[in-house]
Design goal:
This protein is mainly α. Helix content is about 75%, strand content about 0%. It is built from seven helices and no strands. The longest helix is centred in the first third of the chain and has 44 residues. The protein is globular, with a radius of gyration of 23 Å. The relative contact order is 0.14.
C-alpha cells in the first residue's frame, strides 16, 4: 500500500506583506512613467500644433493650452515620483527586515538619471513656451513668462544640485555597512514579480518611447511630419502606455 503525504509549504513570515508592497511599488512606478511620458508627449504635440496654427487667433488658445499642460505637468511629476520613491523605500525596508538584503536590480541605478533626463526635457519644453506667445501677438506675456521660467530654472537647478550632493553623501556613508551584506534577496514564490507581463509590457513601452522620440524630433525640427501623424503619434503613445497592464 502506498501512502502519499500531502504537504503545504507555508510562506515565510511577512512574505505576503512584501508581495503586496512590491505590487504597490510597481503600480506607483507605472503611474510615474505614464505621467512623465504623457507630459512630454502632450507638451510636444501642443507646441507643434501651436506653431502650425494659421493666424494669432488660432495660435493663442494652443499656446495657452501648452502653458496649462506645463504648469500641470510639474506638480503631477513631483507627486507621482515622490509616491513611487516612498513606496520603493518602504518595500526595501521590509525586504531587508525579512531577508536581510534587498533584491539586486541592474536597472535600479538608472532610474534616477532617467527621471532627471525626463525632467530636463519637460523644462526645455517649458522654455520653448515664450516664443509661442510672441508668435501669437502676446509680447508682454512672452517677456514675463521668459523671465519667470529663467528664475524658476535657476532655483530648480540649485535645488537639484543640493539634493544630488546630499544623495551622494548619504549613499557614500551607507556603502561600508552594505559592503558585507549578501548579494540579493531569495525572493518568494507567492509574488509573481514584474515578469508576468514583461515581454508584452517591454514591447509596448518601447513603442511609446519611439512615439515620444518622434514627437521630440519634430519639436526640434529634425523632421516635419503631417498634422495627422502628430495626432497619431500622440494616440499611439497613450495606447501603448495604458494597455501595458503591468
Amino acid at each position: 500500500m502506498t501512502y502519499m503525504v500531502m504537504t503545504k509549504i507555508a510562506p515565510p513570515p511577512g512574505a505576503q506583506a512584501v508581495a503586496g508592497l512590491r505590487a504597490r511599488a510597481r503600480a506607483a512606478r507605472r503611474i510615474a512613467l505614464i505621467a512623465l511620458t504623457g507630459s512630454i508627449a502632450l507638451l510636444c504635440a501642443a507646441q507643434l500644433l501651436a506653431e502650425r496654427a494659421a493666424g494669432t487667433s488660432a495660435a493663442l488658445p494652443l499656446a495657452v493650452l501648452a502653458l496649462a499642460l506645463f504648469l500641470g505637468a510639474l506638480p503631477t511629476l513631483a507627486i507621482t515620483q515622490a509616491v513611487w520613491g516612498a513606496r520603493a523605500r518602504e518595500t526595501r525596508r521590509r525586504e531587508f527586515a525579512l531577508y536581510a538584503a534587498s533584491p539586486a536590480s541592474p536597472l535600479r541605478p538608472l532610474s534616477r538619471p532617467a527621471m532627471a533626463c525626463g525632467w530636463a526635457l519637460v523644462v526645455l519644453l517649458g522654455g520653448a513656451l515664450p516664443p509661442l506667445f510672441a508668435d501669437a501677438g502676446q509680447h508682454t506675456v512672452a517677456t514675463a513668462l521668459a523671465r519667470a521660467i529663467t528664475v524658476a530654472c535657476a532655483v530648480a537647478c540649485l535645488g537639484a544640485g543640493a539634493c544630488l550632493c546630499l544623495w551622494w553623501a548619504r549613499a557614500a556613508r551607507g556603502m561600508p555597512p552594505r559592503a558585507g551584506r549578501s548579494g540579493g534577496s531569495p525572493g518568494d514564490p507567492w509574488d509573481p514579480g514584474p515578469g508576468a507581463h514583461r515581454r508584452r509590457g517591454a514591447v509596448l513601452w518601447a513603442g511609446a518611447a519611439v512615439a515620444v522620440a518622434a514627437l521630440l524630433g519634430a519639436r526640434a525640427h529634425f523632421w516635419t511630419p503631417p498634422t495627422l501623424l502628430i495626432y497619431a503619434l500622440l494616440v499611439a503613445t497613450f495606447a501603448c502606455m495604458v494597455v501595458t497592464d503591468e
